[in-house]
Amino acid sequence: MSRINFTITLKSDGEPASGFGTELIDSLLPRDINDQVIIPSTHIKGIIRENLEALSDKFVSPGIIAALFGQAGDTGALFHIDNAVAPENANVMDITRTKLNEFGTAEPGSLRTSEAVACGTEFVGTLTTHPNISKAYEDLLKLGFLSLFAVGGGRNRGAGACIVTLENEHKTPGDLLRLLAKIDFDTVPATFLKEEPMIAFSDEQVTLKLVFKATNPVCVPETPIVKNNMIRSGFSIPASALQGAILHRINDISEKVATACYKSKNFRAWPLNPANKEDVLSLRVSFTHKISKFKIDDSDNFHFEDETVKSYDWDKVPTNSPLKATDGVLLTDGTCVKLWKSSEMARIVTAHGVHNGDREGTKNTRKRNLFTVESLAPQLFTGIISMPKTACDLLLKSLEDNSSVQLGKSRSVRGGGELSAQIVDFEELPIMRKREDDVFIVQSPVLVPQNLAKKSSNKIISTLVSEAGFGEVEKSSGSITTQFGWNRTINNGFLGGRSVIVPGAVFKLKSPVKNLKEKLLAGIGEGRESGFGAVLPHPGVAELLFPEAPKPKVVPKPPKNFGKEGFELWETAKANRLSASQISRVRELTGLDPDKAIEYLERQKKDRPEPIWESWKGVIKQIENGIQKDPEYMEKVLRVCQDLLVAAKGDN
Description:
Alpha-Beta Plaits
C-alpha cells in the first residue's frame, strides 16, 4: 500500500459545481466541513476513468479498467482518492452568463450565475493504493491522473484547465503510455500474491481499543434508497463493515490466519461510533433515552431519563420541559456519561450525475444516474474488537506499516481515514468501570429466528437473551425491521432481506450476569461471525449533553440601508419640490465639512420665501438630523437621492 500526494493546479478559472444553488447563485462550489473549496474525489475518479476508457481500445480492455476501478459485485477499486482541497484563501468569484438567440439577444430565462475558483489555485489531495496492487496497474492509475487536463463544468469551453503532479513521479503521460503499451495486461494480475508466511496460530483472546480518524466523509446507509433517490448514512460504522475491513487486511498477509480468525469464537467486533475524544468509548443508544426539551435549572443542565434503566421519579421530571426521545451515542470515559444526539452530528450532502450506461455489462447506453448522498462529516470514531492473538499481531504490524483504511460505501472516494489499535484489558474498559450491572444495549442488529418471526419484540429479545445465557429479562425496549445488506465476497454482492432487532434496543435482567466477558463475546442470536448480535453494558443515564447546547443567539440589528433611505428621501424631496442641484450642493458640503452643510441648510430659511420654506422645512430638518448623526453615511443617502432626482428629471 502506498500513499501518493497529488496537486491539481488550475490553468484557467474552474467551475467544479456542487450540484446545489441559491436564489442568487445557480451553481455553488463544493466545500468541505471547514468551508474550503474542494474538487470532489468522486469527480476526479470519474474523469480519470473516462480518460482511460478513451484509451481502452488502444492497449487495455474494458475488463482491465473494471478491475482497477471496481464494479458491482466485485472486490472494489484498487485505490482510494481523498477530496482535493484548495487553500483557505482561495480566490472565489461569480461568473454570470446568458444564452443568445438567433437575433443575437439574450434568451429569456437563460441568465445563470455560477461560483468559480480562480486560475492558479492549487488543490492538494492524497491517492492511496491497494497494498498488493501490481506495478502495471499502479502505473495505469498514474497515467489516468497525469492525463487529467481539465476539471469541473464547462471543460469544453476552456474552464478548469489544469495540470496534475504526483509526488515522486517524474514520468510524463507520454512516458507512461509508451511503457504501458508494451505490457500484455491480460497476462498481468491486478494484484500480486505474497508468499504466505508460516505462522503458528494462537487463539488466545485479545481485546483492542480502536480509534478511527476519518479524513473524508463516511457513508454507511442503514435503509434502502427511497423514491427521492437519496442515499442516507447512519451515524455508526457497523460491526460487519469493521470486521470485513480487518479480515481483508489480515487476508492480504495470511489467508490461513484470516480464515482461522473468522471462525474463532474469540472474534467479535462492535460498531465504531462517533466520539469526542480518543480515550472515550462510544455506545449507540435508542429512543428509550430521553432528554428534557429545555434546560431545567440555572446551571444550564438538561434532564435525562431512561425507563429501561430505572423507572421515572415523576416528582423529579420537570413539568415545564417535556421529555423528548432521541437517538445518538453515549460517551463515557469511565467517570461521566454524555449524550451526543444524532441530530447534532455534522453531515455533508453531495449531488451526483453519472454517465455509466455504456460500460461493459450494462444493458442501456448512455444511462444517466442522478442521485444525492448524505454522508457523515469526517470525525473521530471509537470502538472495540476481540480477536485471536495471532490475528491481532498481524493487524497491529499492518497498521504500523500503513494505518490508512476505508470504511463504508464507495470506499474508493469515501470513508478514508487512519485506524489505530491498542491492546487493552477488557475489564478495564470505560464501559466496564461505569455500567449498570443488569442493563445492556444492543449495538449491532440481532437476527430474528424464523420460529420467532411472528412474536413481539419484547418476546423475541427475552427468548434470545435467555438462550444466550444472560438470564431472565425483567423488561426490554426495541423494534424490529427488515435489513438488506451487501457482501463484496459473494456472487453479486447483494444479501436478501432479514428480520432483525434494531441496534439501540435495551434490556434489563432480573439478576446480574455471571462470566460477563464470555457472554459479551458470544453476543445474542446467530451470526456472530458476520457482526450480528453485539451487546454491551449500559453505562447509565446521561449526565450532560455533548456538544454543549449553543447559547441563545443575539440577533443583531439589521444594518443600515442607504439605498432604501435614499429612495425614501427622494420621494420626500420630490414631493416638496427640492431640486437635484440643491441636494448635490448639500452632499458636497457634507463630504467637505458637515458644519458647512448645516449652515447652508439653515440659510435656506432666510433666503427663501416663507411659502417655499414651509414646504421645505420638514425634509431639510430630516437631512440636518442625518448629517449630525452620521455625516459619512448621510452623504451616501444624499447621493442616491440626487441620482434619482436626476433620473426622474430625464424621464420627464
